[in-house]
Amino acid sequence: MDMRSFVRALPKAELHLHLEGALDPETMMRLARRNGVDIPFRSVEEIRAAYRFTELQDFLDIYYRGMDVLRTEEDFYDLATGYLERAAADGAVHVEVFFDPQGHTARGIPFAVAADGILAALADGRERLGVTSLLIMCVLRHLSEDDGFAAFREAGPYIADGRIAGLGLDSTERDNPPAKFERLFAAARGAGLRLVAHAGEEGPASYVAEAVDRLGVDRIDHGNRALEDPALVRRLAERGMTLTVCPLSNLRLCGVPDMRRHPLKRMLDAGLKATVNSDDPAYFGGYLLDNFVAVAEALELDGADLVALARNSIEGSFLDDAAKRAHLDRLAGAAAGRAEQVRP
After folding, report:
1. Would you tell me which CATH number, out of the four given (1.20.1250.20, 3.20.20.140, 3.40.1190.10, 3.60.20.30), belongs to the domain 3-23+76-335?
2. Which of 31, 68, 72, 297 is deepest in the core (most CB within 10 A)?
3. What is the DSSP letter of 279?
4. Which three-class secondary structure state does DSSP give residue 219?
């Protein structure tokens, strides 16, 4: 059975997606022209060439530069809508998306402009595409915890009424351990937010342990380097901690030299609750389905592996139990009699 068609048909969730990372070259150029923003590129081809990077900091430099074209609620709405359409086409039934408010307020864009534009698109996506969603605000770890608290306070009304469901931690890990934000995450937990954090992408396995033990996260974003600590792997497996793995991103930035050496199969074999996600798809060359197919082909995953990855994504989501059960029932139906036809 064709693997791509099989994976597309599996109901699944995407749990690690930065909306700003869905800003493809065509959209960047269009929004720059619409808003009269001067960008250092004369064509879509030049933007695409700038997306060929190999270091996390080089990626972040172009990532933050690209944000500058996002100026109005309409811009954020269009960005989120474009992503949701791709996710739906890839078979996603639920998405939990990140945005970086500090990257916008630092440019003079009010918090509400970004949040309201994204939330309007997510609401429309539920109605038009049938894709449910939750919004997670991330704080930038290269900034101070006080700066993170300022963003958290701005988000207060959105947290109070449930429009923002979680707090995340992203940006460069180097010299920015999770414990740097321990007070902020405690406050977020007290406000009822779900908690996630990037750890073990470029940072060591100890950062994964810190995110679990000091921040009390509900999920680990990436987590690849946890495999360097067998005792930590056992703890994560015993707790059923979900890891939101991003194969194509890892190939570019996470020290994975070849997709055939990606750690995803080792994670599954170790009992870790790994999932597949696209991270910043416009920059890393693939959306959700592309990531599934790339890693499945390279690691010779079979139908049962693919169903397990889809199941992990639903179970690791922040949906309520009834919604999870409904999606899991649909997944079982989609896989019945077909999974064994998919061979590595």
Report:
1. 3.20.20.140
2. 31
3. B
4. strand
